[in-house]
Each structure stands twice: as C-alpha cells, then as structure tokens.
Design goal:
Layout: E1 3-8, H1 13-16, H2 21-28, E2 29-30, E3 38-44, E4 50-55, E5 61-62, E6 78-84, E7 89-93, E8 96-100, E9 105-108, E10 115-118, E11 127-133, E12 141-143, E13 149-153, E14 162-168, E15 179-185, E16 191-192, E17 197-198, E18 202-209, E19 217-223, E20 226-232, E21 236-240, E22 245-250, E23 255-262, E24 271-272
Parallel strand pairs: 1-3
Antiparallel strand pairs: 2-21, 3-4, 4-11, 5-10, 6-9, 6-11, 7-8, 7-10, 9-12, 13-14, 14-15, 15-23, 16-22, 17-24, 18-21, 18-23, 19-20, 19-22
C-alpha cells in the first residue's frame, strides 16, 4: 500500500496541564509529512479529521482506503480538501484531470471512487490534505487564490499584517463540514491569529510552510488561562482541539493552512480571547 494513516487519540484539557514538552509534541505535532511515493497522515479523534501529505516522486499515487475507515474506498463516506504547496501538478478524480498550481485548492466530494495524484518531472509535488466525514455528495471543485474570499488584516506596526484566503468555505464552494484556507504573512510580520480564539463547535489543524531555512514558528495552544507552546519547522502541522487557542509567532514571515471540521460552517463562530487575558 502507498497510503499509511496512523491514529491520534484526543486529549482532555485537564490532562494537558501536566504534559511535558515531549508529550505535547507527541500528541499534537505532526513532524514527518512528505514521504517519497507515499500518502501519509494522521486520523485524529478530534472530529475524525484526517490530516496528511502526498508526495509522488517516481510514480502516480492512488488514494487507497485505510483500516480506520472500514470502507471500500477512501471517500465512500468522506470528503477531502487538497492544497498544493509544491510545483504545479495534476490530480485525477474519477477520470477527470485537474491541474493544480502552487497554493491552489481542490475539493473532492463524497463517493468519488478513483483519485490519483501524479508526480512532476522535478519531483517537487507536495500536496497537503484534510479529510472529514461527509453526509452529502458535492461536486469536485478547483479553487484558485483568485476565486477565494480574500481578507487582509493586521498591520506591520503590530507585526501581524496578513492576507487570508478562504479557499474551501461555504461562501466559495459547497462542502459538508470541511473548511480550509491559507494565511500569508507579509514580510516583517510574524504573528498569526492574534487576538487568539477558541471554538468549541469545531477543531482545527494548522500546517506551516514557506518557513524559510533556519527559521521556526512558536505555535501557542491550550486553554486561554493555561497556554503552552510548540516549536514548529517547515512542513509540520499542529492538531488543535476545540478547547485550545491556536496562534503563532515566527522568527520570519511564513504561510500556514488552516483546516476545520465540526459542528457548523460559520467561519465567524469563535470565542475571542483578549491578549491581556492569556496566561
């Protein structure tokens, strides 16, 4: 098999308070994303989201069913969102070929039986994906940055000048519960998602990329009155439970992909935390 998914169990916020550095990293950080000629990732019990990477180099890779799903095909009861973080590539979904450029997204709906990821000549195909349980079938849709809902927030003075591209959200494309987008920080800015927030109605995953060589991001998580941090490198991701804030600051600007699944599709459904209330 070319598809390998491991299971990650959820954690209680009271238990989280006692975790040391290694345990926090083990339970919430995904370090190894892109393995040559493999589809790999994590099945998290947080809203049963699958978070993973696809890296075809010498051959095309088919999205195969995994044991956790107990299904004939990967998307028998699921939807998937894919964002290209590498070179331009091609994805085939039930015979239709979609060309995906860097930082473009593809939504593939429930019931699609045959999904194939093709390599580029340079071997620079890096695809990040989130997959969530689905109850309806919606059409496969490609979304570019030009098609996204775009919001620019923050300022250089506050080190958080950033552009948010809402790629796979219900104002742009029909999905069941999956939402995905991308936030690019401007040069000179390092803070993301500050003021921080939580949303008990859904979990979130953060995938950091465009982190320049030699730089890192400190990702902050935990309940607002009991925060911790994880140092994150390029092409690594954080699983963020519903009870946790999700924010970060880097040693340089960077880009990250956010993905959500859970109770509702209201992007603005969040409980904001004042910076002065964080502990």
């Amino acid at each position: 098999m070319n598809t390998v998914i491991k299971t990650q169990y959820s954690s209680h916020p009271e238990d989280f308070k006692s975790y040391d550095t290694s345990e926090i990293r083990d339970k919430f950080l995904i370090e190894e994303f892109f393995q040559t000629d493999m589809i790999s990732g994590v099945y998290t019990m947080e809203d049963r989201l699958i978070v993973g990477g696809i890296h075809p180099v010498s051959k095309s890779l088919q999205l195969e069913p995994v044991d956790q799903l107990k299904a004939e095909t990967f998307l028998e009861r699921r939807e998937i969102g894919i964002i290209n973080v590498g070179a331009k590539t091609k994805i085939e979904a039930d015979g239709t070929v979609y060309e995906l450029d860097t930082k473009e997204a593809l939504y593939i709906g429930k019931g699609t039986s045959n999904v194939i990821f093709h390599p580029t000549e340079t071997g620079d195909t890096f695809l990040y994906f989130n997959s969530a349980p689905a109850h309806m079938t919606y059409p496969t849709t490609k979304v570019s940055k030009e098609n996204a809902e775009v919001v620019t927030l923050g300022s250089l003075e506050n080190s958080n000048h950033r552009t948010i591209y809402k790629l796979l959200v219900n104002s742009v494309v029909k999905t069941c519960q999956l939402q995905m987008g991308m936030t690019e920080l401007k040069p000179g800015s390092v803070w993301n998602t500050m003021p921080a927030h939580t949303h008990d109605r859904r979990m979130e995953a953060y995938f950091y990329f465009d982190v320049k060589e030699g730089n890192v991001v400190s990702h902050f998580m935990g309940q607002p009155n009991e925060t911790r941090h994880i140092w994150v490198k390029n092409h690594q991701a954080i699983i963020s439970p519903p009870w946790s804030i999700h924010s970060g600051a880097g040693t340089s600007n960077y880009t990250f992909i956010w993905g959500m699944a859970g109770e509702n599709m209201n992007y603005g459904d969040m409980d904001t935390v004042k910076p002065s209330d964080l502990k």
